[in-house]
C-alpha cells in the first residue's frame, strides 16, 4: 500500500497543527534512485487504552509518503474508545484484537504477521518524525549486511513534542554501551525480516525489559546494528505510561538479564565483570528504592494523632 496523502486522511482535531496533523512527508517516487522497488516496510503497534495518543502514532506512519507500507495494530482489549478512533483509519490500518496476552505477545503477533522486508515496532504513545521511512530504506539498501537499523530518539513530556527535549539518544550500538545505558531504542529502529525468519522473538514472560533483553539477544546471536541518524522517533513520557508506574518486575527483569550476562560466555570476560558491577549497583538502587517506598507508606502512621 502506498501512503495516503494528507487530503485523503480524516481531518485532524481543530486544536492540532504541524507534523503529523497538518504537515506530511515528501512523497517518494515509485522507484529508488537505483531503479529498484522500495522495500516493503511493516510497522507493528501494540495498543491498550491509549486514545489520547494513538492517532498521532497512526498519522506519523501513514504520512511518510512511502510507496509500500503495511501497518498492523494489535490491541489488547482497549475500552477507552481507541478502537473507535482507529476505525476512522480502517482503509489503511490492519487491526487485530488479542485480549489479555500482554505487550510482548502483541508485538510478536505483529512481527509474525508482518510481510515487510523492514519491520518497525512503534508504541501507541510514541511516533515517527517526517521522512524516516525513506531514510530507513536507503540505509538498508546501502548496508545490506546489517540486520538492525537504529536512529535518533527524542524524549518529550505529555503533549508538547517540541524542543527542548528531555533527552536525545543517538548512539552507535555496542555491548559495552548497552551495559551502561539504554543506548538504542525501538522508537527509531527497523529490523530485517530475516531476524524473524530465524525464529528470534520477544520473550513473552517479560513485561518491562523485553526490549533490552531482545536487543541483547540479537547482538549475542550475531545480528549487527547500524546507526542511521536521519531516522528519528519520538518517545513520550506521561503520567499513565507503564515506565512511570512502579512495579517490582521493573527491578527484577533487568536484574535477571544482568545475572544471565554475568554467566554468558559469548561475552568478553571484561564485559562479564562489568555486568557484575552493574548487577551490584542495580541491587543497591533497588534496595534503597524499596526502603524509601516502605518509609513513605509507614511515616503517616508514626505522625498521625492516636
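Sequence proposed for the structure above (306 residues):
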Amino acid at each position: 500500500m502506498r501512503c495516503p496523502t494528507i487530503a485523503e486522511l480524516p481531518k485532524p482535531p481543530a486544536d492540532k497543527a504541524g507534523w503529523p496533523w497538518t504537515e506530511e512527508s515528501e512523497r517518494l517516487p515509485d522507484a529508488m534512485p537505483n531503479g529498484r522497488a522500495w522495500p516493503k516496510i511493516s510497522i507493528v503497534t501494540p495498543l491498550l487504552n491509549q486514545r489520547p495518543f494513538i492517532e498521532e502514532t497512526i498519522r506519523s506512519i501513514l504520512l511518510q509518503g512511502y510507496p509500500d507500507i503495511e501497518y498492523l495494530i494489535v490491541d489488547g482489549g482497549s475500552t477507552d474508545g481507541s478502537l473507535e478512533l482507529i476505525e476512522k483509519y480502517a482503509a489503511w490500518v490492519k487491526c487485530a484484537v488479542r485480549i489479555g496476552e500482554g505487550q510482548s505477545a502483541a508485538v510478536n503477533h505483529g512481527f509474525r504477521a508482518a510481510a515487510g522486508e523492514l519491520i518497525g515496532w512503534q508504541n501507541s504513545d510514541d511516533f515517527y518524525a517526517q521522512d524516516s521511512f525513506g531514510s530507513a530504506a536507503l540505509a538498508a539498501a546501502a548496508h545490506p549486511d546489517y540486520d538492525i537499523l537504529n536512529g535518533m530518539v527524542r524524549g518529550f513530556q505529555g503533549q508538547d513534542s517540541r524542543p527542548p527535549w528531555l533527552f536525545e539518544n543517538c548512539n552507535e550500538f555496542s555491548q559495552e554501551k548497552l551495559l551502561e545505558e539504554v543506548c538504542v531504542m525501538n522508537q527509531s529502529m527497523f529490523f530485517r525480516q530475516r531476524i524473524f525468519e530465524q525464529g528470534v522473538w520477544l520473550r513473552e514472560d517479560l513485561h518491562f525489559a523485553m526490549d533490552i533483553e531482545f536487543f541483547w539477544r540479537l547482538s549475542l546471536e550475531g545480528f549487527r546494528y547500524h546507526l542511521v541518524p536521519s531516522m528519528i522517533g519520538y518517545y513520550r513520557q506521561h503520567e499513565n505510561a507503564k515506565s512511570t508506574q512502579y512495579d517490582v518486575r521493573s527491578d527484577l527483569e533487568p536484574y535477571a538479564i544482568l545475572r544471565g550476562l554475568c554467566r554468558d560466555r559469548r561475552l568478553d570476560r571484561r564485559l562479564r565483570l562489568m555486568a557484575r558491577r552493574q548487577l551490584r549497583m542495580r541491587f543497591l538502587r533497588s534496595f534503597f528504592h524499596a526502603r524509601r517506598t516502605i518509609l513513605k507508606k509507614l511515616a503517616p502512621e508514626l505522625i498521625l494523632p492516636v
